[in-house]
Amino acid sequence: MALDNFNDVPNVSPFPTALRMGMIGGGLCIVFGLVSYLIGIDSTVSKVMQYLNYVVWIAFVVMAIKQHRDKDLGGFISYGRALGVGMLTALIMAIMSVIWTVLLYKVIDPNFAEKTMEIVMQQWEEKGISDDQIEDMMPMVSRFMSVGPISGIILFTISLIGFVTSLISGAVLKKNRPGA
Known about the structure:
Order of helices and strands: HHHHHH
Mean pLDDT: 87
Structural class: mainly alpha
Low-confidence stretches: 1-8
């Protein structure tokens, strides 16, 4: 909707657009996670799915900013507003990803962390890391394989990617109203 009155712009909430785009992006990431889980975490396809998550996170932040600018704000958006919409979208995707992770680790497959550790140990052995070194690394790595630290890493990673993407996209997509 084009806005004829500049004074109406502050009343347009970025939340509906961020929620919609964050839910769609988060849903896609959950689908990728489910496919990865079903085909096996150690497969090549699983690695491709991980990279697709990065593409989704970046694409949906950019699309949310652009959609908010073009559909909600009549083609204009400030840098700060773009940053806010992008970060809100990223946070929604992050929350959805954390919910998926909790479900995977606690409900779907309570042994998922152990299975992942076995795969990591096997990969280390294939790289020639000695049994003593692996034994020394295991306590530290196992602390990060539980749902709490993994969830924190997910929140941090998606938020960081969302922030950087929002900074860049905001600079590119920013379009101030004439005379503003």
